Amino acid sequence: MSPPGPDGEAELARLVRSHDRWRGRTVFNLLASENALSPTARRYLGSDLAGRYTLPIHLAIEGETLDNSYTGTRYTDRIERLANEAAARLFHAKKATTRPLSGHIAALSVLAPLLPPRSRLLAISPDQGGYDGYAPGFVPAVLGYTVRPLPASGPGFRVDPEEAGQTIRQERPQAVMLGQSFFLFPYPLREIVEAAHAVDALVLYDASHVLGLVAGGEFQDPLGDGADVLFGSTHKSFPGPQGGLIATNREDLFAQLDPALVWRVFDNAHWNRIAGLAQTILELERFGPEYARTVVANAQALAPALEAGGLPLIAASDGYTRSHQLHLDRPRLRADRGMGAGALARRLERQGLLIDLVGRIGTAEATRLGLTPGDMPRLADLIVRGGLRSEKVGAEVRAWRRSFRSLRFL
Q1: Taking the CB of residue 215, how many other CB atoms lie within 10 A of it?
Q2: What is the mean pLDDT of each run of 10 residues along the chain (410 residues)?
Q3: How far is CA 91 from CA 86, 144, 192, 197, 248, in A?
Q4: What CATH number matches the domain at 93-267, 3.40.50.300, 3.40.640.10, 3.90.550.10, 3.10.20.30?
Q5: What is the DSSP letter of 317?
Q6: pTM as predicted
Q7: Kind of pairing, strands 64-66 and 59-61?
């Protein structure tokens, strides 16, 4: 139980400082779902914006025409406009909004206004690498939708264009949801779009994991390839604050979804977050392509080094990945080493190397620190020694991590 009053405040301060020292100075974060913010973006999160509101409403109340429920928003509203315009530029979109509070809420913000209850969706199943939130008991259940599987198979859970087209023609959904938690390879997007549009279905692209790579032009161009709406979270390969965004070239769809957000999905959109996100977007306009190329190059260099050390990874015929993720081959890990992915992750955590407990390894934050493909054999060696051989490599990890005193991509 936490202590009350001043003692509790002191304990809280100690915990926050300890977290910042540990995660910010002594470990290599290889979690595929996290990234490092720039100092400027972090500073904006702690600005006075954190406690403020703005609510444009354009209503007539008691004979007065109101354009906002609040006063004091002259800078807040301009920050939001700047963020939305920058997001539209970055993703080559006609319209964008940075209001969603997370990638999951971005999905709700797209689906609820665009599709009526009892709509039918296609989405990749969690057991084929898909996002659990699109499984039948979650987002579809909340919104009254039926969801059917869009097939993904083989190493890397890839979508075959012919199989996808056949499924779309048979199921005739109102929308095809693309996006995965285990996201290694791009989709055959033009073929999927052609099949979906032939049955009047929307193609909604959840880029949560690969949004930073899309922004850098490295993974694929969803809107350019015909997806109707792009959305996702802004804190995975995209190195921003936790939150979400939506972008589209369909002004008709944006006119449906944007006004429907307020009072249905959220009210206050956290303007300090939007300022931090705007900063990240502007940074990516400068260094996004180089950053995205290096993220992917690092993942592609790390994979064979890990395999050479005896850590089994999922691999397709054309490589291990084209994203920021690598995936442990969990059946092989258990058969060869008698170990699950969770046990490996806990062992590595004790040595200052963070991966997740379901077997994903990500290179986005390591790239932000300044690691390059030439560093991947050394990183792989630490992972193999600390994870598979139970060697105490923590001191080596800490010394190497402390040599990176600032972010490379700023």
Answers
A1: 26
A2: 87 97 97 98 98 87 86 96 98 97 96 96 96 95 96 94 98 98 97 98 98 97 98 98 98 92 86 98 98 98 98 95 98 96 98 97 98 98 98 98 92
A3: 9, 31, 20, 22, 9
A4: 3.40.640.10
A5: T
A6: 0.96
A7: antiparallel
